[in-house]
């Protein structure tokens, strides 16, 4: 185990990585890819990012395929209308070209690529390269992949997005993560959730979208290409986490970082995780009593093992065999002399 000082440094470094992404620090992550599904939607994560962006007076632009207008401080672009791909890119550029720092959120990259036929390279060059802003895109993992009609050998859209992203955040339900951990501790097969179950009619499991918080499996891409992976827990924000908003600001600044490593969460770090107790109730009960009584324990301690006396001898005598002849033994003197 690493020394305590090294562990503290490791935790501080890991929290700093995710904090830079959530707080939109300069050059922290030009393109952040968020992966979610019906078992854990990314709405809590996006809400937290938007609040932090508005608290820093960042221009927030939401290109929406799935949601209506949410907050008056957000520049909302309804992409589900009659916009073509070129018109949509023009609207995005018009909303960020007059500001110093912007955040562009695409709530469905699947629809952006397949419905509007927008090239991700062109969008990235526009937002991250030309205007030095941050691009965040959401991709739903339970969407069926659509083959490329022009090039059958083209890689899937999700693979291209993962290749381009500088940070990948995968959303998991906290309850499902606890269930998987409980299964691992008992050497049982990990439970599958949602579409992975393969059960007819099941697309969202029980305990999906756990209200206690959201688990984030993060992969940070360094400029050298070496990735760093960590798993975090993000709870819902409270009023006490932010300072009071000053005049002219929508939200106050963040007081302290409340994103923690998953290993630091008490409900996850317990020796017996949540869900293991209920799993123990399913153990088959044996019809045999495998425990020993006090009398049986005393009898077991009194048993002399073979060659036990030989082990008490002095040096050089260890391992000698002690044998006492009985009445039924036939002693042959001539054979003994040979």
Give a verbal description of the structure.
- With 338 residues, this protein is of the alpha/beta class.
- It has one domain (7-280): 3-Layer(aba) Sandwich (Rossmann fold), CATH 3.40.50.300.
- The chain contains 11 helices and 9 strands.
- It has a 9-stranded mixed β-sheet with strand order 3-2-4-5-1-6-7-8-9, with helices on both faces.
- The longest helix has 19 residues, at 4-22.
- It is elongated, with a radius of gyration of 32 Å.
- The protein starts with a helix and ends with a helix.
CATH class: Alpha Beta
Shape: elongated
- The run of helices and strands is HEHEEHEHHEHEHEEEHHHH
**Overall number of structural domains:** 1
Question: How far apart are the termini?
Answer: 63 Å
- Largest sheet data: 9 strands, mixed
How is the CATH topology named?
Answer: Rossmann fold
* Fraction in helix: 25-40%
- Strand percentage lies at 15-25%
Figure out the total of helices.
11
Question: Superfamily at the CATH H level?
Answer: P-loop containing nucleotide triphosphate hydrolases
Global mean pLDDT: 82
Structural class: alpha/beta
Compact summary:
The protein has 338 residues and is of the alpha/beta class. The chain has helices at 4-22, 43-55, 85-96, 109-114, 120-130, 157-164, 174-185, 266-269, 276-280, 294-301, 333-337; strands spanning 31-36, 59-64, 75-78, 102-106, 134-140, 167-173, 214-221, 227-234, 260-261. The protein has a nine-stranded mixed beta sheet with strand order 3-2-4-5-1-6-7-8-9, sandwiched between helices.
Which features does this protein show?
338 residues, alpha/beta, nine-stranded mixed β-sheet, 11 helices
